[in-house]
Batch of 4 targets.
Target 1
Amino acid sequence: MNKITRLSPVNLSIEQLIEAKAIHLNMPPWRQVTSSRHGNRLSKVRGRGMEFDEVRHYQAGDDIRCIDWRVTARTGKTHTKLFREDREHPVFIFLDLSHSMYFGSGDKLKSVFASELAACLGWNAQQLGERVALTLHLGEQAHNQKPAASKTHWLAQLQSIVDLHNQQFQRLTEGSMQVGSPSNNLAKLSQLIKTGYQVHLISDFYQFDSDAALHLQRLSQHNQVFAWQISDPLEQQLPKAQQAQQLAVSDGSQQAYINPSNKAFRQQFKRLAEQRQRNIERMLQQARIPHQHFSTALEWQDYA
């Protein structure tokens, strides 16, 4: 797709999230998990469900409630009905809009990139007829919505992303944005999610501590979970001295300067960034959650 139209490098617009419908991503190969939900997708699992499959001779262990008495009476041999279970995979999108996501060294904040990705995943689920729900991690608080399949509901959820994203940025500039682990919000998410759901985690994962890691492991035991990591190139490595003598960094209210001309400092910065990335990947591997890493330095067509 073409580059998404942005009216502001820091604020978000509903037009951006509607345009994200045209983003093409390679979706992850979901691993099989146990599901007890009913919906609009047929599985190959046989059992008591919504769709009749066939009749066969009764076998030891078959549920007697599934005996087909008409066929049994007609043939003189006990027959049982088999069903194909009708299932759906409601999609939950956990979007991190906490403090560390409001960073960018180019023309796009991580939070903006993440919001566009959330919209893309939601549109994809919409096209498959799945119900979609959002959890927006706002620091110590969260904004949760229940899954629904209607386009009107999804557009309302997109508008909530826009509103809360821009409110969070305003709080950042005022120095009032909350900072905290997503552990409590992941615990609430676990209470909302039933077995067999698809869960997309969109974050830089910088604030995920050991408690959050435990919740990730619980989520992935009976659900299809995928992690989408967003980072900025300046978080991975400082530019060389000849590219910039001083770098101005700000948290919205205060400003400081980094001098990348010190080679030892640049090397230490890179080592710490690599260690942080290894810790994130180890956490996700232990939870058996596959993940994909995105950089704000690239445009969406670069990932097609």
Note: The CA atoms of residues 142 and 217 lie 20 Å apart.
Target 2
Amino acid sequence: MDLRAIVTWLDEYLRIGAVPDYPTALNGLQVDSGRGEVRRIAVAVDAAQATIDRAIAEGADLLIVHHGLFWDGNQPVTGRRYRRLKALLDADLPLYSAHLPLDVHPEVGNNAVLARELGIEIQGTFGEYRGSPVGVWGTVDEVLREGLAARLDGLLGARVKLVPGGPERVRRVGVITGGAGGSVADAVAAGLDAFVTGEGAHHNFFDAEEGGINLLLGGHYATETWGVRALGQRLQEQFGIEWVFVDHPTGM
């Protein structure tokens, strides 16, 4: 499949130009290539040196990530930025990044996919960034909060942190993956019994405890592997392209 055609499809499917994001996200094609044809795609959470090297070793013709190269802003091309770019350019490997557009996508987004995996019947959104909704919420068959935490443990393959600030029996659950502990107030305002995210600040414990909501922290990385994998599968269905997930967990 032609690289330009894939990039155009991704831009439209993920609504790259319509979903607001942080200025340094730079969603879309971040590193170009002279490659004309894409036969194999690698997907990863982060554009780290390890994932770039693995994608090259896997023989990928395109690397798609959730967290791109330029989070530290307008910086000189030295040090690790130089090394990452050099590896991509030497291998003629294009890099595509989608941050909030991949978080919020209703089909392959981190939030929607993790919510469905948790057994949540999605009914709406909550929280926003620059006027655009970021989280999803819905209902589960009534479950004890410890049972919901155990379900998340199984999905993520690690023990999650449960702040038992809300009702013992849970039905209304919201999800914002990644570092959304600061959205506890939005979850409380939405009338949720439990809020699932990746990580938060120390004071988010008290936000949940005093807000009357159960807070489940599953890890930033672990909660954000879902979108890139779902997108890889969607690209295979759309274009018949082989894909591989490059896993490089941080434990954070």
Note: Residues 41 and 62 are 5 Å apart (CA to CA).
Target 3
Amino acid sequence: MVKTPLLLIPGLLCSPRLFAPQAAALTDLAEIVVPDWRRAPLSIWDSWESAARWIVDQMPPGKFALAGLSLGGMLAVEIMQVAADRVTKLALLDTSMRSQNETERAIRRARIRLADEGHFELVLGLQLSRFIPAYRLPDKKLVDEVRTMCGEIGVEIYKRQEALAAVRADRRPDLPKIKCPTIVVCGRDDAATPLFLSEEMAKAIPAAALVIIEQCGHLITMEKPEETNLILSTWLKR
């Protein structure tokens, strides 16, 4: 059986560990590629287009299925601007297509300052509260895995990602142009990119399906891997 190439794009502060459960579960269905930000030149974060083009360059020639979580979902839609003809289907996971207002940009700048001043552990704690619902914090295995993942990315990549996220364009006007089969997936209790953002994306993309994972936060691939694997495998087979 010829496997579908599947590009899984991690989000801010996320290493390939974000998609480890999917890389294991979907290997019979897809030839999986997960970009590793640690192997990319820092210059890819100079613009959304340069990051998108570097990601596409990691893929073998030809068409591929595309999924991204959070910042990875934003990058997936950037890829739709530069290589839409290569994308056979799209999955947008816990993400947003809105630009940032001045308050949101100020918060990102403050987090960058904290990291610059040697308080990266504090930044990780702030991010953890956005990534994992409070009711899952007693799950030491999950919390440790997320902390390990964020630590793998490190300060310099994080600062570049935050700075780029602060200046992203509003991509909502581009969503109706997406013609490939698309699913939009969100954890019901996502604090970083709340459900209403997924609802507006699903309404804007022609024939997109919205899938909600109950009792789950932002990192659906790690928090509810079995449910996420089933959603993605159904999407790949469709």
Note: The chain has a mean pLDDT of 97.
Target 4
Amino acid sequence: MTSTPSAHAVSQYATTTENLTARIALHAYGTNPQSWFSWLGERLPLAGDVLEVGAGTGKLWTHVDHVTRGIRLTLTDFSGAMCEQLRTVPEARVRQCDATDLPFGDAVFDTVIANHMLYHVDDPAAALREFARVLRPGGRLAVAVNGRDHLEELNAIGPAVGRPDLALHATQNDFTAETGPGYLARLFADVSVERYHGDLEVPSPDPVLTYLASLSSEPLTPKQFAAARNHLQARIDADGSFRVRKHTVLITASAGTTQSADHV
């Protein structure tokens, strides 16, 4: 098993977009009628110069029409494969870089977005310092992150079939929905938290098995695969679907030093 969050992220994302795409696809089975990306897009402070750090495949920008809204969009990711995909986003500037060493001047963005990526860096505080540096006075930060109990039912499958490496939390740092507001309050003002409500109800084992396969370069053995399928099918037979609890929040803050937090 890789030893740090960033090393794991490199093994998962540096040369392919397929693992991230497989994980996003599972959330099509969400119980909230509004998708995560649509919900997020409605809440982001989007005007002027906008930076998304760790933008992945750029999925957010298929739900937000930044061109019509006149947003000057910059997208970054450490992964060359992700950056190649990001270059298909219309009128976006793309830079390959590390979140803790952004290749931009001070106070050049009105908004910085970090959507489900801060738990992949070794030092989230260092990344937040960079976000604070590149934000203009009064600029806004938007961070999406998960709680410790996020996807517990999925995380339990790997250990149950002899693959504890498939538990997501084992590869991430301590930046969570619970700790994130405190991290932001050290550098930003007006910290607030809003939860995205909704779980997963997956009607067949296959999407979950595809998700599990995306988590490691070492495939499940035939015995492990059969055990995982049987586990999933038993839950589906009993409950009508494989139900997975989600715990995702959006944390927003303003460039400044006043410490406050308002949880929803």
Note: DSSP finds ten helices and ten strands in the chain.
